[in-house]
Each structure stands twice: as structure tokens, then as C-alpha cells.
Amino acid sequence: MSTVTRAHLDQRLAAAKRSSKEAAMAGAKAAAVATVAAAVPTLASVRMLPWAKAHLNPTGQALIISTVAGMAYFIVADKTILSMARKHSYETAPEHLKNTSFH
User: What stretches pass through the bilayer (predicted)?
Assistant: First the structure.
């Protein structure tokens, strides 16, 4: 069993902080795009469709748009963190586990 050094733990902590910051930025970008993508048809439908005009008050419109933005943020941030964790776990894996060929 190997010992874990302080430097190794500091290195892992720094990598985790970089990963979380990158995931937060990717999630924010996705949320911004999703907000525009949801707002345009929502606001247009309220102006053009009689059903939407009658049933979607401003609170309902805001709820639709913010729900889409929140989902986009968390989905993209989660996928980013998982992909980075997968990449880092592969980089630190022993050589006998990196060989994925079936020969």
C-alpha cells in the first residue's frame, strides 16, 4: 500500500478546482444559449397563439424560460465534470488498465 503525500493531495485539489470552474463556465454558457432559445418561441407564441395568450401569464413565461436555463446549466456542468473525471482517471490509471485491446 502506497502513502499519499501532501503534494499529491494539493495537486488533486487544484485539478478538482479547475474542473469545477470549467464546468461552471460551460454550464453558464449553455444556460445563456438555452435562455435565448427558450425565450424567443415562448414570447412569440404568447403574442401569436390565442391559447398561449390566454393561459401563459408573465410568471408562467418566466418559469418556462428559467426552467430550461437551469436544466441546461446542470446537464452541461454534470457532463463536463464527468468527462474530465474520466479523462483524469484514465491518465492516472496503471498501465495494465490502460490497454483496452482484446488481443
Answer: 60-77
State the Cα–Cα distance between residues 81 and 73, nearest whole angstrom.
Answer: 12
Break the chain into its structural domains and give their ranges: 6-54, 55-92
What tens digit of pLDDT does each residue of 34-85 get? 999 999 999 999 999 999 999 999 999 999 999 999 999 999 999 999 998 8
Task: State the burial class of residue 59 (Cβ atoms within 10 Å of its Cβ: 0-12, 13-18, 19+).
Answer: exposed
Q: How far apart are CA 25 and CA 61, in angstroms?
A: 26
Task: Enter the DSSP assignment of 82.
Answer: H
Predicted TM-score (pTM) of the model is 0.77
Q: At 79, phi and psi to the nearest 5?
A: -65, -35
**Is the torsion defined by CA of 8, 11, 13, 15 positive or negative?**
negative
